[in-house]
Amino acid sequence: MGCFNLLNTIRGKKNKYFSCGHLQSSLFFDYENNVKLCPFLQDRIIVKNFNGLWLDISKIIEKRKNSVEEMKNGIIPDECKKCHNLKNIAWHKSEYIETLYLNQWRYCYINCCYCNSPKQENLIEAKHFDVMPAIEQLIDKKLFTVNTKVVFECGDSCIHPEFDKLMYFFINYGMKEVTVNTPALRYCQSIADALSNNITNVVISLDAGCAYIYERIKGLNKFDIAISNIKRYKQYEEPSQKRVILKYTIIKGINDNEKEILDWYILSKNLGIKKLVFDIAENWFREIKDSIPDYLKEIIFFVRKISDFNEIKIEFCERAAVLYNLIKNEQNQKNKEI
Ligand code: SF4
Ligand code: SF4
User: Which position among 84, 99, 118, 137 has the lowest Cβ density within 10 Å, counted as fewest Cβ atoms?
Assistant: First the structure.
Protein backbone atom coordinates (compact mmCIF):
# COMPACT_ATOMS: atom_id res chain seq x y z
CA MET A 1 0.00 0.00 0.00
CA GLY A 2 1.41 3.43 -0.96
CA CYS A 3 2.17 5.97 1.79
CA PHE A 4 -0.70 8.22 0.74
CA ASN A 5 -3.29 5.42 0.76
CA LEU A 6 -1.97 4.11 4.06
CA LEU A 7 -2.21 7.56 5.60
CA ASN A 8 -5.83 7.93 4.50
CA THR A 9 -6.77 4.46 5.66
CA ILE A 10 -5.27 5.15 9.06
CA ARG A 11 -7.13 8.45 9.27
CA GLY A 12 -10.27 6.60 8.24
CA LYS A 13 -10.99 9.33 5.73
CA LYS A 14 -10.75 7.53 2.43
CA ASN A 15 -14.14 7.54 0.80
CA LYS A 16 -14.41 5.98 -2.61
CA TYR A 17 -18.15 5.94 -2.56
CA PHE A 18 -19.34 9.54 -2.39
CA SER A 19 -19.17 10.58 -5.99
CA CYS A 20 -20.58 13.40 -8.09
CA GLY A 21 -21.43 12.78 -11.73
CA HIS A 22 -20.93 16.44 -12.61
CA LEU A 23 -17.48 16.64 -11.12
CA GLN A 24 -16.53 13.40 -12.76
CA SER A 25 -17.63 14.07 -16.30
CA SER A 26 -19.65 17.24 -16.95
CA LEU A 27 -18.58 20.62 -18.26
CA PHE A 28 -20.59 23.83 -17.96
CA PHE A 29 -20.42 27.04 -19.93
CA ASP A 30 -22.40 29.62 -17.96
CA TYR A 31 -23.88 33.02 -18.84
CA GLU A 32 -21.34 34.81 -16.64
CA ASN A 33 -18.68 33.52 -19.03
CA ASN A 34 -17.32 30.91 -16.64
CA VAL A 35 -16.29 27.43 -17.69
CA LYS A 36 -16.76 25.10 -14.75
CA LEU A 37 -17.11 21.55 -13.45
CA CYS A 38 -20.03 22.16 -11.10
CA PRO A 39 -23.03 24.48 -11.45
CA PHE A 40 -22.86 25.61 -7.81
CA LEU A 41 -19.35 25.86 -6.38
CA GLN A 42 -17.15 28.87 -7.07
CA ASP A 43 -13.97 26.87 -6.56
CA ARG A 44 -14.93 24.48 -9.35
CA ILE A 45 -14.62 27.29 -11.90
CA ILE A 46 -11.84 26.54 -14.35
CA VAL A 47 -11.88 29.64 -16.54
CA LYS A 48 -13.34 33.07 -15.70
CA ASN A 49 -14.19 35.66 -18.35
CA PHE A 50 -13.98 33.11 -21.14
CA ASN A 51 -14.18 34.94 -24.46
CA GLY A 52 -14.77 31.90 -26.66
CA LEU A 53 -11.41 32.11 -28.40
CA TRP A 54 -9.12 29.63 -26.68
CA LEU A 55 -9.96 27.16 -23.94
CA ASP A 56 -7.23 25.92 -21.60
CA ILE A 57 -7.98 22.19 -21.89
CA SER A 58 -5.09 21.07 -19.68
CA LYS A 59 -6.57 23.18 -16.86
CA ILE A 60 -9.89 21.32 -17.19
CA ILE A 61 -8.18 17.93 -16.99
CA GLU A 62 -6.01 18.91 -14.05
CA LYS A 63 -8.78 20.61 -12.06
CA ARG A 64 -11.08 17.62 -12.56
CA LYS A 65 -8.36 15.18 -11.47
CA ASN A 66 -7.51 17.18 -8.34
CA SER A 67 -11.15 17.81 -7.35
CA VAL A 68 -12.07 14.14 -7.72
CA GLU A 69 -8.97 13.07 -5.78
CA GLU A 70 -9.87 15.46 -2.94
CA MET A 71 -13.35 14.03 -2.64
CA LYS A 72 -12.09 10.46 -2.82
CA ASN A 73 -9.87 11.36 0.10
CA GLY A 74 -12.78 12.55 2.19
CA ILE A 75 -12.48 16.29 1.56
CA ILE A 76 -16.13 16.95 0.77
CA PRO A 77 -17.24 20.62 0.78
CA ASP A 78 -20.33 21.40 2.91
CA GLU A 79 -22.28 22.45 -0.21
CA CYS A 80 -21.67 18.99 -1.69
CA LYS A 81 -22.98 17.30 1.44
CA LYS A 82 -26.30 19.10 0.92
CA CYS A 83 -26.35 18.59 -2.85
CA HIS A 84 -28.58 15.97 -4.50
CA ASN A 85 -25.83 15.25 -7.04
CA LEU A 86 -23.63 13.69 -4.35
CA LYS A 87 -24.36 9.99 -4.68
CA ASN A 88 -23.40 7.05 -2.57
CA ILE A 89 -21.85 5.20 -5.49
CA ALA A 90 -18.31 4.55 -6.63
CA TRP A 91 -16.50 6.94 -8.96
CA HIS A 92 -16.03 5.67 -12.46
CA LYS A 93 -13.24 6.60 -14.78
CA SER A 94 -14.49 8.83 -17.54
CA GLU A 95 -12.31 9.37 -20.57
CA TYR A 96 -14.42 12.12 -22.06
CA ILE A 97 -17.08 14.72 -21.19
CA GLU A 98 -20.31 12.81 -20.68
CA THR A 99 -22.54 15.89 -20.48
CA LEU A 100 -21.84 19.33 -21.86
CA TYR A 101 -24.15 22.04 -20.54
CA LEU A 102 -24.53 25.04 -22.81
CA ASN A 103 -25.82 27.59 -20.31
CA GLN A 104 -23.91 30.51 -21.76
CA TRP A 105 -27.13 31.74 -23.32
CA ARG A 106 -29.90 32.46 -20.85
CA TYR A 107 -31.88 35.14 -22.53
CA CYS A 108 -35.61 34.52 -22.81
CA TYR A 109 -38.35 36.82 -24.04
CA ILE A 110 -40.76 35.35 -21.50
CA ASN A 111 -40.69 36.21 -17.84
CA CYS A 112 -42.16 33.17 -16.09
CA CYS A 113 -43.08 34.10 -12.54
CA TYR A 114 -40.90 31.36 -11.03
CA CYS A 115 -37.86 31.78 -13.24
CA ASN A 116 -34.56 33.06 -11.92
CA SER A 117 -33.02 33.51 -15.36
CA PRO A 118 -30.95 36.68 -15.42
CA LYS A 119 -32.43 39.84 -16.81
CA GLN A 120 -31.45 41.20 -20.20
CA GLU A 121 -29.23 43.97 -18.78
CA ASN A 122 -27.10 41.40 -16.86
CA LEU A 123 -26.72 39.38 -20.02
CA ILE A 124 -25.62 42.40 -22.03
CA GLU A 125 -23.06 43.17 -19.36
CA ALA A 126 -21.81 39.57 -19.37
CA LYS A 127 -21.36 39.73 -23.16
CA HIS A 128 -22.09 36.91 -25.50
CA PHE A 129 -19.49 34.53 -26.96
CA ASP A 130 -19.61 31.81 -29.59
CA VAL A 131 -18.97 28.41 -28.00
CA MET A 132 -18.23 26.63 -31.30
CA PRO A 133 -14.41 27.09 -31.31
CA ALA A 134 -14.25 25.64 -27.76
CA ILE A 135 -16.29 22.60 -28.87
CA GLU A 136 -13.88 22.09 -31.78
CA GLN A 137 -10.96 22.21 -29.33
CA LEU A 138 -12.65 19.63 -27.10
CA ILE A 139 -13.21 17.39 -30.15
CA ASP A 140 -9.58 17.77 -31.10
CA LYS A 141 -8.51 16.54 -27.66
CA LYS A 142 -11.07 13.68 -27.81
CA LEU A 143 -12.93 15.03 -24.78
CA PHE A 144 -16.09 15.64 -26.78
CA THR A 145 -17.41 12.71 -28.80
CA VAL A 146 -20.65 11.70 -30.51
CA ASN A 147 -21.62 10.11 -27.18
CA THR A 148 -21.36 13.35 -25.21
CA LYS A 149 -24.83 14.49 -24.19
CA VAL A 150 -25.40 18.16 -24.95
CA VAL A 151 -27.93 20.12 -22.91
CA PHE A 152 -29.18 23.57 -23.85
CA GLU A 153 -30.69 24.75 -20.57
CA CYS A 154 -32.74 27.91 -19.93
CA GLY A 155 -33.51 30.58 -21.25
CA ASP A 156 -34.90 29.97 -24.65
CA SER A 157 -32.31 28.08 -26.65
CA CYS A 158 -34.17 28.88 -29.87
CA ILE A 159 -33.26 32.57 -29.78
CA HIS A 160 -29.59 31.81 -29.07
CA PRO A 161 -27.69 33.52 -31.94
CA GLU A 162 -25.68 30.37 -32.80
CA PHE A 163 -28.45 27.88 -32.05
CA ASP A 164 -29.18 26.74 -35.62
CA LYS A 165 -25.47 26.59 -36.47
CA LEU A 166 -24.78 24.41 -33.41
CA MET A 167 -27.78 22.15 -34.03
CA TYR A 168 -26.79 21.48 -37.65
CA PHE A 169 -23.22 20.88 -36.55
CA PHE A 170 -24.45 18.30 -33.99
CA ILE A 171 -26.68 16.62 -36.61
CA ASN A 172 -23.86 16.41 -39.15
CA TYR A 173 -21.30 15.33 -36.57
CA GLY A 174 -23.54 12.37 -35.65
CA MET A 175 -24.31 13.28 -32.03
CA LYS A 176 -26.65 10.88 -30.28
CA GLU A 177 -28.34 13.05 -27.67
CA VAL A 178 -28.96 16.78 -27.62
CA THR A 179 -31.52 18.13 -25.16
CA VAL A 180 -33.12 21.47 -25.95
CA ASN A 181 -35.18 23.41 -23.39
CA THR A 182 -37.56 25.93 -24.91
CA PRO A 183 -40.98 27.47 -24.34
CA ALA A 184 -41.58 26.75 -28.08
CA LEU A 185 -42.80 30.21 -29.00
CA ARG A 186 -40.31 30.32 -31.85
CA TYR A 187 -40.45 27.37 -34.22
CA CYS A 188 -36.99 26.10 -35.26
CA GLN A 189 -36.51 23.97 -38.34
CA SER A 190 -33.16 22.81 -36.89
CA ILE A 191 -35.06 21.21 -33.97
CA ALA A 192 -37.48 19.56 -36.40
CA ASP A 193 -34.53 18.20 -38.43
CA ALA A 194 -32.81 16.96 -35.28
CA LEU A 195 -36.07 15.25 -34.27
CA SER A 196 -36.32 13.44 -37.58
CA ASN A 197 -32.68 12.35 -37.15
CA ASN A 198 -33.57 11.01 -33.69
CA ILE A 199 -30.87 12.99 -31.95
CA THR A 200 -32.79 15.53 -29.94
CA ASN A 201 -35.20 15.67 -27.03
CA VAL A 202 -37.07 18.93 -26.97
CA VAL A 203 -38.39 19.82 -23.52
CA ILE A 204 -41.15 22.41 -23.69
CA SER A 205 -42.11 24.18 -20.49
CA LEU A 206 -45.87 24.53 -20.70
CA ASP A 207 -46.62 24.44 -16.94
CA ALA A 208 -50.37 24.59 -17.53
CA GLY A 209 -53.27 22.75 -19.06
CA CYS A 210 -55.16 25.85 -20.21
CA ALA A 211 -54.54 29.30 -21.66
CA TYR A 212 -55.66 31.14 -18.50
CA ILE A 213 -53.13 29.51 -16.15
CA TYR A 214 -50.48 29.68 -18.89
CA GLU A 215 -50.90 33.45 -19.08
CA ARG A 216 -50.75 33.81 -15.30
CA ILE A 217 -47.43 31.96 -15.24
CA LYS A 218 -45.79 33.25 -18.41
CA GLY A 219 -47.29 36.73 -18.46
CA LEU A 220 -48.12 36.21 -22.16
CA ASN A 221 -51.26 35.31 -24.01
CA LYS A 222 -49.42 32.88 -26.32
CA PHE A 223 -50.67 29.47 -25.28
CA ASP A 224 -52.05 28.80 -28.78
CA ILE A 225 -48.69 29.55 -30.42
CA ALA A 226 -46.91 27.10 -28.10
CA ILE A 227 -49.54 24.41 -28.82
CA SER A 228 -49.30 24.98 -32.58
CA ASN A 229 -45.46 24.64 -32.48
CA ILE A 230 -45.72 21.50 -30.34
CA LYS A 231 -47.99 20.00 -33.02
CA ARG A 232 -45.47 20.93 -35.74
CA TYR A 233 -42.59 19.32 -33.83
CA LYS A 234 -44.68 16.20 -33.20
CA GLN A 235 -44.92 15.65 -36.96
CA TYR A 236 -41.15 15.10 -37.06
CA GLU A 237 -40.98 12.64 -34.18
CA GLU A 238 -40.79 8.98 -35.21
CA PRO A 239 -43.76 7.04 -33.82
CA SER A 240 -41.51 4.77 -31.72
CA GLN A 241 -39.76 7.75 -30.06
CA LYS A 242 -40.56 9.93 -27.03
CA ARG A 243 -38.68 13.05 -28.03
CA VAL A 244 -41.21 15.86 -27.76
CA ILE A 245 -41.52 16.25 -24.00
CA LEU A 246 -43.75 18.62 -22.06
CA LYS A 247 -42.69 20.01 -18.70
CA TYR A 248 -44.76 21.18 -15.75
CA THR A 249 -43.12 23.17 -12.98
CA ILE A 250 -45.38 23.37 -9.99
CA ILE A 251 -45.80 26.89 -8.62
CA LYS A 252 -47.30 27.83 -5.28
CA GLY A 253 -50.87 29.14 -5.51
CA ILE A 254 -51.10 28.97 -9.32
CA ASN A 255 -50.90 25.46 -10.74
CA ASP A 256 -50.43 23.46 -7.52
CA ASN A 257 -53.70 21.58 -7.80
CA GLU A 258 -54.91 18.28 -9.21
CA LYS A 259 -57.34 19.90 -11.67
CA GLU A 260 -54.64 21.82 -13.53
CA ILE A 261 -52.31 18.82 -13.54
CA LEU A 262 -55.09 16.65 -14.96
CA ASP A 263 -55.88 19.27 -17.64
CA TRP A 264 -52.18 19.33 -18.60
CA TYR A 265 -52.12 15.56 -18.71
CA ILE A 266 -55.25 15.32 -20.90
CA LEU A 267 -53.97 18.06 -23.21
CA SER A 268 -50.67 16.17 -23.56
CA LYS A 269 -52.53 12.98 -24.35
CA ASN A 270 -54.57 14.74 -27.04
CA LEU A 271 -51.37 16.10 -28.55
CA GLY A 272 -49.95 12.57 -28.73
CA ILE A 273 -47.14 13.32 -26.25
CA LYS A 274 -45.56 10.20 -24.75
CA LYS A 275 -43.29 11.68 -22.11
CA LEU A 276 -43.84 14.36 -19.48
CA VAL A 277 -41.54 15.79 -16.88
CA PHE A 278 -42.55 17.31 -13.60
CA ASP A 279 -40.63 19.65 -11.31
CA ILE A 280 -41.18 22.12 -8.44
CA ALA A 281 -40.25 25.81 -8.63
CA GLU A 282 -36.76 26.20 -7.18
CA ASN A 283 -37.38 29.26 -4.97
CA TRP A 284 -40.52 27.71 -3.45
CA PHE A 285 -38.80 24.38 -2.85
CA ARG A 286 -35.96 26.11 -1.04
CA GLU A 287 -38.49 27.63 1.39
CA ILE A 288 -40.37 24.42 2.12
CA LYS A 289 -37.83 21.65 1.81
CA ASP A 290 -37.53 21.15 5.58
CA SER A 291 -41.28 21.12 6.12
CA ILE A 292 -43.12 19.93 3.01
CA PRO A 293 -46.85 20.79 3.06
CA ASP A 294 -49.07 17.69 3.07
CA TYR A 295 -51.02 18.84 0.02
CA LEU A 296 -47.81 18.91 -2.04
CA LYS A 297 -47.01 15.36 -1.01
CA GLU A 298 -50.52 14.38 -2.10
CA ILE A 299 -49.98 16.05 -5.48
CA ILE A 300 -46.79 14.05 -5.96
CA PHE A 301 -48.73 10.84 -5.26
CA PHE A 302 -51.49 11.96 -7.61
CA VAL A 303 -48.94 12.47 -10.40
CA ARG A 304 -47.40 9.08 -9.65
CA LYS A 305 -50.83 7.47 -9.83
CA ILE A 306 -51.89 8.98 -13.17
CA SER A 307 -48.52 8.08 -14.60
CA ASP A 308 -48.80 4.45 -13.42
CA PHE A 309 -52.23 3.93 -14.92
CA ASN A 310 -51.80 5.60 -18.29
CA GLU A 311 -49.68 5.19 -21.33
CA ILE A 312 -47.86 8.52 -20.92
CA LYS A 313 -45.10 8.22 -18.40
CA ILE A 314 -44.32 11.12 -16.10
CA GLU A 315 -40.79 11.52 -14.87
CA PHE A 316 -39.96 13.49 -11.75
CA CYS A 317 -36.92 15.67 -12.26
CA GLU A 318 -34.69 17.79 -10.01
CA ARG A 319 -36.68 18.99 -6.96
CA ALA A 320 -39.67 16.74 -7.69
CA ALA A 321 -37.33 13.71 -7.76
CA VAL A 322 -35.78 14.76 -4.44
CA LEU A 323 -39.23 15.18 -2.90
CA TYR A 324 -40.51 11.88 -4.27
CA ASN A 325 -37.53 10.01 -2.79
CA LEU A 326 -37.99 11.84 0.50
CA ILE A 327 -41.64 10.82 0.71
CA LYS A 328 -40.80 7.23 -0.23
CA ASN A 329 -38.18 7.06 2.52
CA GLU A 330 -40.64 8.50 5.04
CA GLN A 331 -43.16 5.85 4.07
CA ASN A 332 -40.62 3.03 4.29
CA GLN A 333 -39.64 4.28 7.72
CA LYS A 334 -43.27 4.33 8.88
CA ASN A 335 -43.85 0.81 7.50
CA LYS A 336 -40.85 -0.45 9.47
CA GLU A 337 -42.18 1.08 12.68
CA ILE A 338 -45.60 -0.60 12.31
S1 SF4 B 1 -21.98 17.39 -5.29
FE2 SF4 B 1 -23.12 19.17 -6.05
S3 SF4 B 1 -22.03 20.94 -5.21
FE4 SF4 B 1 -20.65 19.18 -5.08
S5 SF4 B 1 -19.42 19.20 -6.93
FE6 SF4 B 1 -21.19 17.88 -7.33
S7 SF4 B 1 -22.73 19.23 -8.25
FE8 SF4 B 1 -21.20 20.53 -7.27
S1 SF4 C 1 -39.38 29.88 -20.55
FE2 SF4 C 1 -37.78 29.05 -19.26
S3 SF4 C 1 -36.10 30.55 -19.34
FE4 SF4 C 1 -37.92 31.55 -20.15
S5 SF4 C 1 -38.72 32.65 -18.39
FE6 SF4 C 1 -39.78 30.68 -18.52
S7 SF4 C 1 -38.64 29.26 -17.20
FE8 SF4 C 1 -37.36 31.09 -17.60
Answer: 84
